[in-house]
Prior knowledge:
Number of strands of chain B: 0
Number of domains of chain A: 2
Helix content of chain B: over 70%
Helix content of chain A: 55-70%
Radius of gyration of chain B: 17 Å
Distance between the termini of chain A: 73 Å
Largest sheet of chain A: 2 strands, antiparallel
Shape of chain B: elongated
Order of helices and strands of chain A: HHHHHHHHEEHHHHHH
Strand order of the largest sheet of chain A: 1-2
Number of helices of chain B: 3
Largest interface: B-C, 75 and 85 residues
Strand content of chain B: under 5%
Oligomer: heterotrimer
Mean pLDDT of chain A: 88
Structural class of chain A: mainly alpha
Low-confidence stretches of chain B: none
Radius of gyration of chain A: 23 Å
Low-confidence stretches of chain A: none
CATH topology of chain B: Helix Hairpins
Distance between the termini of chain B: 53 Å
Amino acid sequence: MIDNLDQIFVLFQHWLISFLPSSWQPAAAVMLSVAAIICLFPALFALTTVFERKGLARIQNRLGPNRVGPFGFFQPIADGIKSLTKEDIVPLSADVAVHFLAPVLLVITVFMGFAVLPMGRNMVLVDLDAGLLFYFAMGASSELAVFMAGWSSRNKYSLLGAMRAVAQMISYEVPLIMSSVAVVMISGSLSLTKIVEAQNHYTWGFPHWYIFTPWGFAGFLMYAIATTAETNRSPFDLPEGESELVAGYHTEYSGFKFALFFLGEYVAMFSISGLGTTLFLGGWSAPFSFLTWIPSWIWFFSKLMLSIFVFIWVRGTLPRLRQDQLMNFAWKFVLPMCLVNLLVAGVWRFMGEGLLRWVVCSAILIAAYAGMGVAEMHKQRLGPRSYRYAE
Amino acid sequence: MTPLAGYLLVAALLFSIGLAGALTRRNAILVLIGIELMLNAANLNLIAFWRYGPHPEALTGMMFAIYSIAVAAAEAAVGLGLVIQIYRHAKTTDLDHMNRMKG
Amino acid sequence: MSLVFYILSALTVAGGLAAVLLRNMVHCVLALTVAFAGLALLFLNLDAQFAGFAQILVYIGAVAILVVFAILLTRGSETSRDGIFSRTWLAGLAAAAAVFAVLGWAVLHSMRQLPHETTVPDVTVKQIGQLLVSRYVLPLEIVAVLLTVALIGAVIIAMQEKEESQ
């Protein structure tokens, strides 16, 4: 019964396609999974918008939307109706074809990433041998859509926002990929299902998730920083900061196209959090061995929503980074730490089981972090905090 | 027409389109675009021969293509850096105007 | 010669043609991106998964964006008043047509002697990895040095020099 609950979606899919002739069945199975993904993640997006607004509001000591429905939870319906019925204004001098295609390309490449995420036991759409490479290829293609949006609007603010966004996304692409390479090294495969299966073992009840190792913890932190920057979330949201650039590269978009950009950004957040849980947090595996009776897809989505909650929390807490500060941070701090992390992962792998490797790896990482932190802050001459009061 | 011949013809067509672009356009950046098309056509040739040739398990064609992609990326970076610097010096990217060595 | 091959090659060739014929430079780059995507799909059709995804990641994710940045930094959107084709366009076109004629003749003439295995090769990323560090380790190291040199060189070449004269 527990196994059936775990595989309930797979069994449901098999039951549905059993009504079709057998030559149509593989295509129908794929179509069904694709339809499920396309329906599920925008629904999660709607829920996340209201969570975000209420969460940010509570952090800022106010209430957030509370008029539409119980505690404001029907707010996304109102937002959806608004954005669908707003007039679609295209600037007169804009490049109409590129202006139209930019949000389309963004949404397409963002949804393609879900094809390789294992959302439960046996619940991956395509089990590619080079799944992680496919995911990063789709992530890299979404940058071009951002540039197209900014350039086609023929607006200096849009172009500036687009250039900043693309520069930021390219800079943080390298730490993103490097922190995943450590995981690939240890698990020996680029296939995401094999990476999850390598983490699905338990010692004394504790799971073998990669985040519970020194290199995995450092890798996860750097992955988290890189994903916050890749999806243009605060504190890396200078490209779309309202006080800086009107609205950045989606200034000239209104109505449904703006809703598509918004959807693309949030769905990118989901997919990259999904990848983070697959790589570091064990994907669909349960945290303790006595909890494996809870279905695997519940664990995956709980970890996903936990990551989204942390994104919202960080957005409400930290101030925005300036463009040169964020580029400096990427190239001069995060990238060297990623390289040290790769070294530490290699040391971990070849050192053999035991306490010694924990101590050595943690020592190398902490020394590198402290050393680089001191080196970066040395130039800034920051002393203890001093207050000046008005006379 | 065998599948391999089809792929080879597509690669030849793409190569000559890239060559035409590199030879006939004025802008220096479009010459680089033509060169990238030519490199891609060669990659397609390599992969097609790997797939339909003897001993595909030796992966020679695929490795060659992967190295070619890496080298093409490096060459595009350096080439575009050069174009940017030339633009700063000559204030134009028009190749017909850059027909002297004297600065 | 399947339908998928025809559609993909039509897409790729159309992208390539648009990339060299369009007037607006950014449209040219976007058409080039379509050509790259078509080529990646052709690689996938040829069962070369790693090469196809690497093509998307490197070419569309990096080279296309590089070209776009270069266009924006050199104001490529201002087209020269003499048109988009150079003075010697006819010679260039003739050379390209001659090259295509020679290559096409070579392919069609030797079609019977071309190899034609139809077994799908079973290639995994693990094999590629093992080959990279065993048989192809020297090219790997040389490419690493090359990329470092290209990185440093591109930065130095494109760096703005200090003004010597006012």
